[in-house]
Amino acid sequence: MTLKAFEILDKNGFTKPDGSWYELTSAIDKEEGSFLHSLIKQYQPKNTLEIGCAEGLSSMVICESIGSTGKHTIIDAFQSTDWSNHGIYNLKKAGFDNFTLIEERSELVLPQLLKEGKKYDFVFVDGWHTFDHVLVEFFYINNLLPVGGVVAFDDTGLTGINRVMRYISNYPNFECLGSVGDHPKTLKRRALTGMKKAVNAAFSPLGQRIKKELLNDTVLRTDKELKLNGTVTAFRKTAEDKRHWAWYEHF
Ligand SMILES: C[S@@+](CC[C@H](N)C(=O)[O-])C[C@H]1O[C@@H](n2cnc3c(N)ncnc32)[C@H](O)[C@@H]1O
User: Fold this and answer.
1) DSSP for residue 243
2) Ligand 1 neighbours by CB, cut-off 6 Å
3) Which overall architecture, per CATH, does domain 4-183+225-237 show?
4) By alpha-carbon position, which residue is closest to atom 25 of ligand 1?
5) pLDDT tens, 85-107?
6) What is the tens place of the pLDDT at every residue in 160-178?
């Protein structure tokens, strides 16, 4: 499969309007782009939302995948200030006009979209990467997604984002569709995985409820068994959110 974004990714850069060369600094890779493309082809969203445009590579993948009848909304607080509008330049240069940019912080835009009664059937989250920020974004996205909608997150190998993925994995109304991309398999990571397995085995005579109270979730449930062992992870909303008012699950 060839997507217009892949031409830029293959060269790892593009020619700026002034004729000089710009090297990419912040973009999904081709495997991650193919994953977004395949999700869009499978679930056929028409109204999509994205947080974080930067140089425009993921936005290009989404705009091309939804086609000219689709409508893509991009939230990027710093497109003109930090990114010199490179993302918008790449989108326009590739011929896409099926997008709108909202240049404002996601934490301010998402509640506004909810208040306006907007719905998006595919959302890609790749903005500010702290645990609390991504969790706040997901709180709104859960309300902006119709049943059947899909949300995908970038950089899910980062500890903070991995913990948000674990929390979402517990939601009764979301199913994990899987992850792509490699977590770096460092010696430290492999040693830790071995130690976690040993600790889990040592605690196995105890019931699951007590183990949950005593042990970190990453000891109890591996990323692999939760399908979170990648750098881009997607979930599908399977039902309305009917959680009890004080619902909580360890993560
Ligand atoms: C990792 S880059 C996005 C890369 C892009 N998704 C891609 O793969 O081609 C992160 C982007 O998030 C934007 N950003 C950071 N904090 C934000 C916030 N609070 N609200 C909206 N956008 C934010 C930055 O300006 C930047 O463009």
Assistant:
1) -
2) 26-28, 51-55, 57-58, 75-78, 82-83, 105-107, 126-128
3) 3-Layer(aba) Sandwich (3.40)
4) 78
5) 999 999 999 999 999 999 999 99
6) 999 999 999 999 999 999 9
